[in-house]
Structure formats: C-alpha cells, structure tokens
C-alpha cells in the first residue's frame, strides 16, 4: 500500500498483484483492484480538514478550486456526493468555488466512468441542476438589486419633493398640482397592487403636469416591471419619462437589472444614456460583464464576449484603450478563473 502511494514519478505497483500501474489509474489493469480502497481518509474529509485551517474565504475558495480530484470510483462517488449539496447553497460564499470543482468532477466521471450505474446519474442530471442553480442566482440577484437600489431611488424622490417644496412655488398652483399628483400616485399604487399594470401605465401617461411630481409612480411601476422581468416595458417607461434631471437613476436601474439577469448585450444601451460612452465607461462595462460570466463558470462565452466587444476599440491606434491592450487585460481576468 505504501509503495502505491509514492509520488514524484516513482514506479507504482498494485498492492494486490504487484503489477506496475500508472499513477492516474483508478483500477489495476490486471486484477481489477480499486485503489480507492487503500485510502485511509476520504477526499471530502481531507478537503474539510484543509478548509478548517484557513481563515479567509478567498483562501478557502482557492483551496477548493485547486484540490485534486480523486481517481478511484469509490473516492469519486464519495466526493461528488459530498459536493452536491454545497453547490445548491448559493448563499454560501464558497458556492462558486464548489461549483467549479463539481464541474471538474463531472468531467472526470464522463471520461473515466461513462457507464457506471452509481456515477452516471450525477453526470446525466448536471445540465438541469446547473440551470436550476443559475436561475435561482438570477432571482436572488434581482431581489438584491431591488433591495439595494429602491432606497436610492426613493431617496432621490424625497430630494425632488423637498426641492419643489422649498422652491417658492405659488401656493394655489402648488396645492392644485399636489392634489392631482397625489391622486395619480394613489391610483397607480392601487393598480399595481392589483397587478393591473396596463391601467397603472395609463394613469402615468395620462398625467399632463410636471412628470417629477409623480416620480414615485414611475419608481413603483418600474420596480414592478423589474420584479416581473418585463424589461421591454421598463425600457419604454424610462424613455417616456425622457432625459430629465433624475432620469439617470432610472436608466442606471435598467443597466444593473440587465446585468443581474445575464442580458449583457442589452445592458450596453444603458452604459450612458445621455452621451456616447467614453472608452473608460465602455471598458468598465465589458470588464464587469466578463467578471460576472467567469464567476458563473461561463469561461468560453466570456472569451467570445471579449473578442466581440473589443472591436469597439479597433480604431484606437495608441493609448491605454487600444484593441490589443483591452483584449490582453480582459483575457488575463478570464485566465485567472481557469
């Protein structure tokens, strides 16, 4: 047994029949002995021991991603069974690292044990399992986005109202406009609560006074559109509002929502809605998308995305944002996830 476990290129022998075997072999080619049986500690236990000695999540993620995949069927079965529940817990900061390792294990199963009755089901269900986890992460991303940005938009609304009140508007006009605005806001809220979004939209578009007066209604309906995944309706609502002083917040909301839902190409329209994006703004957009793709394990799509979007800089002949330099920096990001 100890002779089989030797490293560093030494000759390895089967502990049962003595036949010379390659280090990567999971079973003896002569007698069929499974080498996993000689291991005193399981791979999952070894990994857990390593993680228990580390303090920071970054170090733990690296340890998980670099942990060697077992060769034998026995160890592989135990390892993949232990990993599966960990990739489903998307709230765990180590979930992405566990997913990277789980994908590697699935590839190992497909290559080494394609027809094994115990291991094959893990490979067969992987695509559906991965899609389910990604859908769960997108849903959580939308919820996190609403939680984070709704406060910002509402704060902006409060500032708008405060500025209007402090601006010295005539009393009679102010009272009349305030009454109309309040009635519109109430009508929109009532319609949204009943899921009658078409009626809510009619109230907003039918309001003929200053749109800033019913900014709250725009925020309410826009958030509902986001919650239902109705991004085309959200886009048209922002465009209807126009390029006013506070439109930037609404457009930025669309940009962040599209990124969170994986609509990277569509998000490009909202990098800067008031002017053509600068080279820096466009590069930051590509880098943000690439990082999100890599974190989701989408390395090949990330490479294709870089190749396509880097063409934006094709006319730049010198400076920091030439096509070749942009591609080089982004490809280093992708390489770090491999």
How would you portray this structure in words?
- The chain has 338 residues and is mainly α.
- The chain folds into four domains: 1-38, no CATH class; 55-124, no CATH class; 134-275, no CATH class; 277-338, no CATH class.
- The chain has 15 helices and two strands.
- Strands 1-2 form a two-stranded antiparallel ribbon.
- Helix 2 packs parallel to helix 4 and helix 9 (215-228) runs antiparallel to helix 10.
- The longest helix is centred in the middle third of the chain and has 41 residues, at 126-166.
- Mean pLDDT is 78; it is low at 1-11, 36-41 and 168-175.
- Stretches with pLDDT under 50, minimum 5 residues: 1-11, 36-41, 168-175
Task: Calculate the terminal CA-CA distance, rounded to whole Å.
Answer: 34 Å
Give the helices and strands as they follow along the chain: EEHHHHHHHHHHHHHHH
Percent helix range: 55-70%
Q: Approximately how much beta-strand content do the residues carry?
A: under 5%
Total strands: 2
Major sheet: 2 strands, antiparallel
Shape: elongated
Strand neighbour order, sheet with most strands: 1-2
Give the averaged pLDDT, no decimals: 78
| Computed Rg | 28 Å
């Amino acid at each position: 047994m100890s002779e089989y476990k030797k490293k560093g290129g030494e000759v390895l022998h089967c502990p049962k029949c003595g036949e010379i075997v390659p280090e990567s072999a999971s079973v003896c080619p002569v007698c069929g002995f499974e080498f996993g049986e000689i291991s005193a500690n399981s791979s999952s236990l070894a990994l857990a021991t390593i993680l228990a000695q580390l303090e920071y999540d970054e170090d733990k993620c690296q340890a998980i991603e670099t942990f060697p995949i077992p060769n034998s069927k026995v160890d592989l079965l135990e390892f993949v069974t232990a990993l599966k529940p960990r990739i489903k817990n998307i709230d765990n900061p180590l979930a992405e690292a566990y997913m990277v390792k789980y994908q590697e294990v699935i590839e190992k199963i497909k290559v080494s044990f394609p027809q094994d009755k115990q291991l094959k089901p893990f490979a067969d269900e992987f695509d559906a399992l991965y899609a389910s986890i990604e859908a769960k992460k997108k849903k959580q991303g939308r919820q996190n986005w609403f939680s984070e940005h709704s406060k910002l938009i509402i704060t902006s609304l409060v500032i708008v109202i405060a500025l209007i009140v402090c601006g010295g508007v005539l009393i009679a006009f102010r009272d009349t406009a305030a009454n109309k605005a309040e009635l519109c806001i109430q009508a929109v809220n009532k319609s949204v609560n009943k899921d009658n979004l078409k009626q809510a939209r009619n109230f907003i578009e039918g309001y003929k006074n200053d749109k800033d007066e019913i900014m709250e209604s725009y925020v309410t309906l826009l958030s509902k559109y986001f919650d239902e995944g109705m991004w085309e309706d959200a886009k048209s609502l922002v465009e209807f509002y126009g390029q006013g002083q506070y439109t930037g917040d609404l457009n930025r909301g669309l940009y962040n929502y599209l990124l969170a839902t994986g609509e990277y190409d569509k998000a490009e329209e909202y990098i800067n809605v008031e002017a053509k994006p600068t080279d820096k703004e466009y590069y930051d957009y590509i880098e943000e998308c690439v990082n999100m793709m890599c974190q989701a394990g989408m390395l090949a799509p990330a490479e294709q995305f870089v190749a396509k979007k880097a063409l934006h800089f094709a006319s730049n002949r010198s400076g920091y944002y030439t096509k070749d330099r942009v591609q080089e920096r982004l490809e280093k990001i992708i390489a770090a996830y491999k």
